Amino acid sequence: MKLLVIGATGRTGMHVLEQAAARGHEVTAFTRKPELLDGRDDLLVVVRGDATDPSSVREAVAGQDAVIAAVGGSGIARALIATMREAGVRRVVMTSSRSVPATRPRFAVGMAWLIFRKAYVDLARAEGMLEISGLDWTVVRATRLVDRPGKGRVHIDFEADATGGEATLPRADYAMALLDAAEDDAMIGEMPGVCGARAGRA
Question: Which segments constitute the NAD(P)-binding domain (predicted)?
């Protein structure tokens, strides 16, 4: 499919680009730093822009089959919702954090909210905006992301609190989960939580 990746040069976005191209998608990369993608011949188009600015996003969204926002937030959600509606593009997958709905372990969640409250409130706002957007959305909530080699599998559940899997998640495996969600219509309207896979388990 024709796939737009927002935040394409971020640490997760770069994995999404690589894996999406390997899966045969026609990839448009949207980034503030297009120079980081110089020499990449596996991308259809590279677009420079600010993902919170609808005028920057509008041209990149046109003609796409789906959008993966490898960075989250209400500003990005607002710009995507407006421009995707205009362009008639319906499928969007956005990143978020498992800490947004989590209630336990109480101490760890409380500390995370104390430190990252502003970011989590903004992610919660973005999730709410997508829920009422009328688009075919999926929000993929991750545990703590790490820059380690991926395992090629993840643990996914749909509970507020993680029901299994590792507390950390390699970014390569998160990118895999984002692409899997974009390709799976059964994930429309869902907010799966993604954890790292434990040995011998998915």
Answer: 7-184
